[in-house]
Amino acid sequence: MSPQKVAVKVGGRQLTLSNLDKVLYPEAGFAKAEVIDYYSRVAPVLLPHLEGRPLTVKRYPNGVTGQSFFEKNAPEHTPDWIRRVTLPVPGSTKNRETIDFAVIEDLPSLVYYANLAALELHVPQWRVSADGEALPPDTLVFDLDPGPPVTIVECCRVALMLREVLRADGLTARPKTSGNKGMQLYADWDGREEPSAYAKRLAQVLEKAHREQVVSVMARKARPGKVFIDWSQNNPAKTTVAPYSLRARERPTVSTPLLWKEVEGCEHPEDLVFATHDVLARVEEHGDLFGQA
Q1: Which of 124, 140, 158, 199 is 20 to 30 A from residue 239's alpha carbon, by CA?
Q2: Which stretches make up the DNA ligase D polymerase domain (predicted)?
C-alpha cells in the first residue's frame, strides 16, 4: 500500500484512507485527516440526524478553493455494506428516473464519505422506511438568509419572531447556524398539512407584519437589507445542510445547533461562528442541542 494510503478498521469495517495530509482548508491549514477526525468525533450526535435520510453530499477533492460537485447518486465503487435506497427523481436534470442514494447510519459509512472529501452533508426533511420507501415529512425547516448589509444578527431577530408564531401553533422551534451567513429553524412536523404551504403562509404573515425586516419571495432584488425566510426547503425534492455538517468556507465552520439564549443575545456576526473545535467542545458541554424537542 502506498504511503498515501492507510488501511484502518472502523466499527469492524476495513477502510482504506487516502491523501490524509492533503490540505482541504488552505487558510486554516486543515487537512483531510482533520476532517475525518472531526466527523469521527462528532458522529454520536450527527448520525441520528442522518439516519434514514437519503444523502446528498458536496465534495471538494482539491479543497474548498478547488472545483466542487454535488453528488446524490452513490458512486459505483461504494462498498456494499453502506445502505442504499433507490428513489424516483421526477424532473432530474440528468434525465434519470431513479437515483441510488446512500443513507449514512453508522461510523464506517461516515468515515468513508469523509475520505471522499464530502465536506458538506445535506439531507431532506423526510426519511425512508426500513424497506426503502419514502415516508411523509417529519421535519419543518425555515432557512433565514440575510440580504447584505444585514447579517445573522438580524436573522436572530427574525428567528425569535418565528419562534413565537410556531409556538402559538403548538410547534417547538430549534435553531442552528447554517455555518455560512445565515441560520435555520427546525420543528418536528406532525403532518397537519402540506409543509411547504404551511411554511410559506407563516413567512408571508411575518413579511406583512415586518416589511422593513422580512421578505418571503425568492426574487434576489427584493432581499437587500432584509432577511429572506426561505420556506421552499420543505419541498420534498430539496435538502438542507445537516446539523454538525462542515461547510466549505475559508475556515472549517460547522452548521451548529444553538441555545435560544445565544440567539437572544447575538450582537455581532462573529458571536455565532463556530469551527470544528468549538463544536466538539459544545457537544462535550451540552450534548446534542438539536435532540428531539
Answers
A1: 158
A2: 32-290
Residue entry with cell 435555520: 184
Nearest to 72, CA basis, from 39, 113, 36, 111 = 113
Distance set, CA 116 to CA 14, 23, 38, 186 (Å): 15, 13, 14, 29
What is the C-alpha to C-alpha distance for residues 229 and 164, in angstroms, rounded to an integer? 15
DSSP characters over 150-193 = --HHHHHHHHHHHHHHHHHTT---EEEE-SSS-EEEEEE---SS
**Of 291 and 108, which is predicted with more confidence?**
108
Whether the full predicted model's pTM is greater than 0.85, yes or no, is yes
What interhelical angle do 152-168 and 195-209 show, nearest 10?
A: 110
Q: Where are the alpha helices (DSSP H) in the chain?
A: 32-50, 107-115, 152-168, 195-209, 260-265, 276-286
